[in-house]
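Troubleshooting log. The previous structure file for this entry was overwritten by mistake, so regenerating from the original sequence record. Sequence copied from the archived sheet and checked twice against the printout by T.R.
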Amino acid sequence: MLRRLFIRNYALIDHLDVNFEQGLNIITGETGAGKSILLGALSLILGNRADTGALLDKSKKCIIEGEFEVEKKVVKSFFKEHELDFEKSTIIRREISSEGKSRAFINDTPVNLNQLKELSLLLVDIHSQHETLLLNTTQFQLDVVDAFAQHDDLLASYQQDFTSYQQLKKQLEQLHEDEKRSNADQDYFKFQFTELDEANLISDEQQKMEEELQTLTHAEEIKSDLALVLASVSGKEDNLVNQLSQLSSSLASLAKYNGRLNEAATRIKSLNIELKDITSEIESIEEEIIYDPARIEIINERLNIIYQLEQKHRLKTIDELLALKNDIESKLYNISSLEDQIMKLSKELEELKSKLIKQAKKISAGRNNAIPKIESEIKKLLNEVSLPDAVLKVENPARAGLDESRTYGIHATGIDQVKFLFSANKGVAYQDITKVASGGELSRLMLVIKSSVAKLIALPTIIFDEIDTGVSGEVALNVGKVMKRMSKHHQLIAITHLPQIASRGEAHYFVYKEIQNKRAVTKMRRLEGDDRVIEIAKMLSGEKPSSVAVENAKELLKM
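Regenerated output below.
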């Protein structure tokens, strides 16, 4: 229930702090005093969009705070799901800066507007006089039937499976699209893969062949230069090898005069050994190099294949070509497996659809069983609000019987197409509600429907904004009785202009305007004792109530 509402700097409200009671809370006041402003402020902590134009003082921020007492299991589940600290006394706050920035909090933890809206559906149900239009919407009518059917778990399970069904359908549609596109690409991919596969590419062969080709094409030049090198090193009489041998011997002889020359002689001897080894390796290389035109042609042909593939695919190395080949191979595999995926998914979809139809039939049977109860309950309550000849008829094509062989078109709410029809007077044919009901009849019909549903589900705090439009006198008294009965099990906050309803409240609040600092501001105070009698008397007879009106007001309060 809504325990407290705090408003600062919103519309015509400078500062307001009001505590509400369990049961029926009445709000009255003159037209234009600001009763609707209260609902506007409340809607902000319920997740509605903010407007900086609603700030009374543009230099200060607006704060709306609501304190709710919550115990329902479903509310606790919300806190757990969103990882919020649960408090039996939960405070929701909304702050709007003069720059238009908005922040929202649940128990001082920042949250987004979607979370506020989700929580608000569990806490508050606001019904304004304009919402009687909901009576003719399919979803509202179906929600009423489901409330009477009392099959929340079955419906939740069905809707979860239906969501999975829709997702599978999208996946299957995507696979069919992929298959169409893949069939067009398959031949091209096969050609590309075959071309790369037949090339028998080896990771490092390009570099090796390019190096070999360089050697072969310059074979004569290399051999000629190597012969000159070998002649200088070991071929001529005064070659380097002989010269180093002589130097080593000379230094060894002189070492008897200076021992340090032994190290120099040894090092030169080592150089000579290294030089002989280098000479041997050069001789081996020179012997291996043979000018081979046939081999050059083979290498050129192979490199041309590689270069053409790299140019065609705009790649630079064999490793990149091999990666491309693997990617194409993977695509071909996926194409070949699409048919299996489609068959598997189609089977899953059919199985899930079969399950959904079975669930939907159970849901439909529950709804059809609930329809007579709805019609009977609403008929009884319509009589209580002075509509003795009014009848609500609930139609459902599936009510005629569920044929096991019938093909059903399933949707998010099942297989049913519930329709409310209404007749306000004897002899008048049933028609769509909005076509045959007046404003007052619509208000009373909505009231009795919500009264019936409130007994079946744990409706949150219910706020009625002038739901008594179009009624008066004895009818108003009867409407007040229904609202009073509802308030025994639910907190009701009713904005009304009828004294017959205002007198029924456990708590009565008066909204008024006064001038502060040359500016009109909205105020609200709780009425007690004589103040409440006078307010109801004014509602009966005008600004200056007569003694008769005062006595009538007292009588209404006693009732």
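The radius of gyration is 46 Å. Archived copy saved in two places this time.
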